[in-house]
Amino acid sequence: MASDSAVNPTGGPAKPGNQPPRQSPAPASPPTPAPRPRILRRIGPPLAALAALLVFPVWYLASGSPHSTPCTFPGIPQQVVTSPPAEPASFKPVKLVLISGQATTLAFNRDLGPKTLTLQYGVNGIIPFTGSNQSPQLAANDLLGFIRDDQEALPGKQVAVEAWVQNGRVLLKICIDRTGAGFAAPGSYQGTVSIVDPRVSPVSIPVTVTLDWPIWQWVMELLVVAALAGTWYVWVLQAPKNATSGAPVSLLDFCSNKLGILSIGAGIVAAFGVYNATYLNSVTWGSSSGQIFALLGAMFSAFLAGATAVHVSSKAGQAQLWT
Fold first, then answer.
1. pLDDT tens profile 78-94
2. Residues 207, 191: contact at Cβ < 8 Å?
3. Based on the domain organization, do 204 and 109 belong to the same domain?
4. Hey, which of 163, 205, 235, 296 would disulfide with 138, CB 3.0 to 4.6 Å?
5. Average pLDDT over residues 41-53
6. Which among 149, 144, 216 has a CA at the least distance from the CA of 185?
7. How far apart, in whole angstroms, are the C-alpha atoms of residue 247 and residue 20?
8. b/e per residue 165-201 (b: at least 16 CB within 10 A)
9. Same domain, 228 and 204
10. pTM higher than the cut 0.85
11. In this structure, are 190 and 221 located in the same domain?
12. Using an 8 Å Cβ cutoff, are 202 and 164 in contact?
């Protein structure tokens, strides 16, 4: 009868303490992420760059141009008598005094459409024939127009000037209808507006009109160009190397890891600060082509400064960002 007990190598029964220990299975290595297809590595960055470049032009084309309305002057009294009767030879014109503390600049910024500047004059006396059913409107004009320092003028057809008597004062209103981006080049335009009615002493006042480039989407396109160029520049200089091959990681891999995302984000924030300080806070940006290249260069430099700061912090051991 066969014995069920185990036999040791010396021929005797095996003792429980002499049994060989069991080998524990080796821990499984983490799965290696599948590499991206080669076609994606090649066309991914160009497609992403093209999509980024098309965002703001498509936005502008989809929004369309605002409907322009001609200048109007709400509250202007009705002129019943076209021309007041002639004054006697002994009549002295009434003197008008400009009320202090009024702005004489009509700032459009990036707005399109009509805008109106209102100026008020005090009256030293009584202006004749300005009551009801008479002639409360006063003759006013801008004979020389509004001219920039390079002698470019605002279109005269879109400039309207009116003056009238109201509640014991004379109101002078200058309205300019900015019909679109091609209305006039951005910049500062100087002009003189006069009240030349025979019932009052002639008065003239210098007025400034400022125009900023109205299509902000095109200026944001400069930020996109600066960000794309800055991303490529940082990738060429600062991209880490692959752990196995020793070759620099691809641009697509760089833009999809923590270090790349933080670098690009910091660069965009820095570049947007330049966009805000240079374009949004200006009232005449776009008056020269040099401003375009200056803004592009400033945003590119700001992007590099913000993105490089992330790399310097990472290399100094303040953060382990590469995964």
1. 887 667 777 777 789 99
2. yes
3. yes
4. 163
5. 78
6. 149
7. 48
8. beeeebbbbbbbbbbebebbbbbbbebebbbebebbe
9. no
10. no
11. no
12. no
